[in-house]
Amino acid sequence: MTRDALGFVHCFEPGAEAARPLLLLHGTGGDERDLLPLGRAVAPDAARLAPRGPVLENGMPRFFRRLAEGVFDEADLRRRTGDLAAFVAEARARYGLGAPLALGFSNGANIAAALLMLRPEALAGAVLIRPMVPFAEPPASDLAGRPVLILSGAMDPIVPVENARRLAAQLAASGARVEHRVLPAGHGLSQAEIGLTADWIHDRAHPQAA
Protein backbone atom coordinates (compact mmCIF):
# COMPACT_ATOMS: atom_id res chain seq x y z
CA MET A 1 0.00 0.00 0.00
CA THR A 2 1.32 3.43 -0.99
CA ARG A 3 0.09 6.97 -0.46
CA ASP A 4 0.40 8.99 -3.63
CA ALA A 5 1.64 12.58 -3.62
CA LEU A 6 -1.90 13.60 -4.62
CA GLY A 7 -3.30 11.87 -1.53
CA PHE A 8 -4.57 8.61 -3.06
CA VAL A 9 -3.83 5.57 -0.96
CA HIS A 10 -3.35 2.77 -3.49
CA CYS A 11 -2.03 -0.68 -4.25
CA PHE A 12 0.04 -1.58 -7.28
CA GLU A 13 0.73 -5.07 -8.59
CA PRO A 14 3.11 -5.28 -11.57
CA GLY A 15 2.23 -7.32 -14.63
CA ALA A 16 3.53 -8.37 -18.02
CA GLU A 17 4.67 -5.48 -20.19
CA ALA A 18 2.55 -6.66 -23.13
CA ALA A 19 -0.70 -6.75 -21.13
CA ARG A 20 -3.03 -3.76 -20.83
CA PRO A 21 -2.91 -2.48 -17.22
CA LEU A 22 -6.07 -2.31 -15.13
CA LEU A 23 -7.30 0.60 -13.04
CA LEU A 24 -9.45 -0.99 -10.32
CA LEU A 25 -12.13 1.27 -8.83
CA HIS A 26 -14.07 -0.07 -5.85
CA GLY A 27 -17.67 0.55 -4.80
CA THR A 28 -18.94 2.47 -1.76
CA GLY A 29 -17.40 1.10 1.42
CA GLY A 30 -14.60 -0.72 -0.38
CA ASP A 31 -10.91 0.08 -0.44
CA GLU A 32 -7.81 -0.35 -2.57
CA ARG A 33 -7.71 -4.11 -1.96
CA ASP A 34 -11.34 -4.90 -2.81
CA LEU A 35 -11.05 -5.50 -6.54
CA LEU A 36 -7.53 -6.95 -6.64
CA PRO A 37 -8.85 -10.56 -6.65
CA LEU A 38 -11.27 -9.69 -9.46
CA GLY A 39 -8.46 -8.05 -11.42
CA ARG A 40 -6.28 -11.14 -11.01
CA ALA A 41 -9.15 -13.37 -12.14
CA VAL A 42 -10.10 -11.46 -15.30
CA ALA A 43 -6.63 -10.37 -16.45
CA PRO A 44 -3.95 -12.41 -14.64
CA ASP A 45 -1.07 -10.95 -16.67
CA ALA A 46 -2.09 -7.31 -16.29
CA ALA A 47 -0.55 -4.77 -13.95
CA ARG A 48 -3.16 -3.66 -11.42
CA LEU A 49 -3.45 -0.12 -10.04
CA ALA A 50 -6.06 0.22 -7.30
CA PRO A 51 -6.68 3.57 -5.54
CA ARG A 52 -8.89 4.12 -2.50
CA GLY A 53 -11.71 6.60 -2.89
CA PRO A 54 -10.75 9.79 -0.97
CA VAL A 55 -14.29 10.76 0.12
CA LEU A 56 -15.92 9.35 3.27
CA GLU A 57 -19.68 8.85 3.58
CA ASN A 58 -20.56 7.68 7.07
CA GLY A 59 -17.05 6.27 7.32
CA MET A 60 -17.26 4.46 3.97
CA PRO A 61 -14.77 5.36 1.20
CA ARG A 62 -16.18 6.67 -2.08
CA PHE A 63 -14.69 8.41 -5.09
CA PHE A 64 -17.02 11.44 -4.95
CA ARG A 65 -19.83 12.92 -2.87
CA ARG A 66 -23.52 12.34 -3.40
CA LEU A 67 -26.48 14.33 -2.12
CA ALA A 68 -28.73 11.26 -1.78
CA GLU A 69 -28.80 7.75 -3.21
CA GLY A 70 -28.69 8.16 -6.98
CA VAL A 71 -28.22 11.96 -6.72
CA PHE A 72 -24.63 12.99 -7.34
CA ASP A 73 -22.84 16.18 -6.30
CA GLU A 74 -21.81 16.93 -9.86
CA ALA A 75 -19.42 19.75 -8.95
CA ASP A 76 -17.58 17.39 -6.60
CA LEU A 77 -17.70 14.61 -9.20
CA ARG A 78 -16.01 16.86 -11.76
CA ARG A 79 -13.30 17.87 -9.31
CA ARG A 80 -12.67 14.31 -8.13
CA THR A 81 -12.56 13.09 -11.72
CA GLY A 82 -9.80 15.59 -12.43
CA ASP A 83 -7.92 14.44 -9.32
CA LEU A 84 -8.22 10.80 -10.37
CA ALA A 85 -7.01 11.59 -13.90
CA ALA A 86 -3.97 13.35 -12.41
CA PHE A 87 -3.32 10.34 -10.17
CA VAL A 88 -3.48 7.99 -13.17
CA ALA A 89 -1.00 10.15 -15.10
CA GLU A 90 1.38 10.24 -12.12
CA ALA A 91 1.08 6.49 -11.56
CA ARG A 92 1.71 5.76 -15.23
CA ALA A 93 4.94 7.75 -15.06
CA ARG A 94 5.99 6.18 -11.75
CA TYR A 95 5.29 2.58 -12.72
CA GLY A 96 5.95 2.77 -16.47
CA LEU A 97 2.39 1.94 -17.56
CA GLY A 98 0.40 2.42 -20.73
CA ALA A 99 -3.10 3.86 -20.61
CA PRO A 100 -5.12 1.55 -18.36
CA LEU A 101 -8.45 -0.15 -18.83
CA ALA A 102 -10.75 0.86 -15.95
CA LEU A 103 -12.58 -1.91 -14.12
CA GLY A 104 -15.08 -0.25 -11.82
CA PHE A 105 -17.93 -1.46 -9.64
CA SER A 106 -20.90 0.73 -8.65
CA ASN A 107 -19.42 4.01 -7.33
CA GLY A 108 -16.14 3.07 -9.00
CA ALA A 109 -17.96 2.41 -12.29
CA ASN A 110 -19.61 5.82 -12.03
CA ILE A 111 -16.34 7.71 -11.70
CA ALA A 112 -14.87 5.57 -14.48
CA ALA A 113 -17.76 6.70 -16.71
CA ALA A 114 -17.06 10.30 -15.66
CA LEU A 115 -13.37 9.80 -16.55
CA LEU A 116 -14.35 8.58 -20.01
CA MET A 117 -16.53 11.65 -20.51
CA LEU A 118 -14.31 14.35 -18.99
CA ARG A 119 -10.78 12.99 -19.37
CA PRO A 120 -10.90 10.35 -22.13
CA GLU A 121 -7.12 10.44 -22.53
CA ALA A 122 -6.77 8.84 -19.09
CA LEU A 123 -8.26 5.49 -20.15
CA ALA A 124 -7.94 2.96 -22.96
CA GLY A 125 -11.47 1.73 -22.25
CA ALA A 126 -13.56 0.47 -19.37
CA VAL A 127 -15.56 -2.33 -17.81
CA LEU A 128 -18.42 -0.68 -15.92
CA ILE A 129 -20.22 -2.98 -13.48
CA ARG A 130 -23.58 -1.60 -12.24
CA PRO A 131 -22.95 1.98 -13.41
CA MET A 132 -25.44 4.79 -13.79
CA VAL A 133 -25.46 8.06 -15.72
CA PRO A 134 -22.98 10.36 -13.93
CA PHE A 135 -24.11 13.74 -15.30
CA ALA A 136 -27.57 15.20 -15.87
CA GLU A 137 -26.20 16.74 -19.08
CA PRO A 138 -23.45 14.57 -20.61
CA PRO A 139 -20.31 16.55 -21.53
CA ALA A 140 -19.11 16.41 -25.11
CA SER A 141 -16.23 13.96 -25.49
CA ASP A 142 -14.39 12.05 -28.19
CA LEU A 143 -14.01 8.40 -27.22
CA ALA A 144 -12.60 7.41 -30.62
CA GLY A 145 -13.53 3.73 -30.64
CA ARG A 146 -12.58 2.98 -27.06
CA PRO A 147 -14.06 -0.36 -25.93
CA VAL A 148 -16.58 -0.23 -23.10
CA LEU A 149 -18.42 -3.14 -21.47
CA ILE A 150 -21.42 -2.28 -19.27
CA LEU A 151 -22.82 -5.00 -17.00
CA SER A 152 -26.26 -4.40 -15.51
CA GLY A 153 -28.38 -6.54 -13.19
CA ALA A 154 -31.96 -7.08 -14.30
CA MET A 155 -33.00 -7.21 -10.63
CA ASP A 156 -30.71 -4.43 -9.38
CA PRO A 157 -32.65 -2.43 -6.74
CA ILE A 158 -30.20 0.50 -6.94
CA VAL A 159 -29.60 1.11 -10.66
CA PRO A 160 -32.53 0.75 -13.07
CA VAL A 161 -31.55 -0.93 -16.32
CA GLU A 162 -32.99 2.00 -18.26
CA ASN A 163 -30.49 4.33 -16.56
CA ALA A 164 -27.60 2.12 -17.68
CA ARG A 165 -29.06 2.03 -21.20
CA ARG A 166 -28.96 5.82 -21.28
CA LEU A 167 -25.30 5.73 -20.24
CA ALA A 168 -24.54 3.18 -22.96
CA ALA A 169 -26.21 5.44 -25.54
CA GLN A 170 -24.29 8.51 -24.32
CA LEU A 171 -20.94 6.74 -24.56
CA ALA A 172 -21.76 5.27 -27.97
CA ALA A 173 -22.76 8.74 -29.20
CA SER A 174 -19.27 9.92 -28.21
CA GLY A 175 -17.66 7.21 -30.35
CA ALA A 176 -17.08 4.40 -27.85
CA ARG A 177 -17.57 0.77 -28.93
CA VAL A 178 -20.11 -0.16 -26.28
CA GLU A 179 -21.39 -3.60 -25.36
CA HIS A 180 -24.19 -3.54 -22.77
CA ARG A 181 -25.16 -6.82 -21.15
CA VAL A 182 -28.14 -7.20 -18.81
CA LEU A 183 -27.81 -10.27 -16.60
CA PRO A 184 -30.19 -12.07 -14.22
CA ALA A 185 -28.57 -10.56 -11.13
CA GLY A 186 -29.03 -7.88 -8.49
CA HIS A 187 -26.50 -5.18 -7.60
CA GLY A 188 -23.79 -7.66 -6.62
CA LEU A 189 -21.36 -9.20 -9.09
CA SER A 190 -22.34 -12.70 -10.24
CA GLN A 191 -19.88 -15.50 -10.92
CA ALA A 192 -20.95 -15.65 -14.57
CA GLU A 193 -19.86 -12.03 -15.04
CA ILE A 194 -16.29 -12.81 -14.01
CA GLY A 195 -15.87 -15.20 -16.94
CA LEU A 196 -17.71 -12.84 -19.27
CA THR A 197 -15.43 -9.96 -18.25
CA ALA A 198 -12.29 -12.07 -18.66
CA ASP A 199 -13.34 -13.07 -22.18
CA TRP A 200 -14.21 -9.48 -23.11
CA ILE A 201 -10.87 -8.14 -21.89
CA HIS A 202 -9.00 -10.86 -23.75
CA ASP A 203 -10.91 -10.35 -27.01
CA ARG A 204 -11.42 -6.59 -27.20
CA ALA A 205 -9.02 -4.67 -24.99
CA HIS A 206 -5.67 -5.31 -26.58
CA PRO A 207 -2.89 -2.75 -25.98
CA GLN A 208 -2.62 0.01 -28.47
CA ALA A 209 -0.61 3.20 -28.77
CA ALA A 210 -1.36 5.19 -25.62
Layout of helices and strands:
Layout: E1 2-3, E2 9-13, E3 22-25, H1 36-42, E4 48-51, E5 55-57, E6 60-62, E7 66-68, E8 71-72, H2 74-95, E9 101-105, H3 107-118, E10 125-129, E11 147-153, H4 161-173, E12 177-183, H5 191-204
Parallel strand pairs: 3-4, 3-9, 9-10, 10-11, 11-12
Antiparallel strand pairs: 1-2, 2-4, 5-6, 7-8
Helix pairs in contact: 2-3
Attribute tags:
single chain; 210 residues; alpha/beta; Rossmann fold; two-stranded antiparallel ribbon; 5 helices
What does this structure look like?
The chain contains five helices and twelve strands. It is α/β, with parallel strands linked by helices and 210 residues long. It has a single domain, classed as 3-Layer(aba) Sandwich (Rossmann fold). The strands form three sheets. It has an eight-stranded mixed sheet with strand order 1-2-4-3-9-10-11-12, with helices on both faces. The chain has a two-stranded antiparallel sheet with strand order 5-6. α2 (74-95) crosses α3. The chain is globular, with a radius of gyration of 15 Å. The two termini are 26 Å apart. The model has no long low-confidence stretch (mean pLDDT 92).
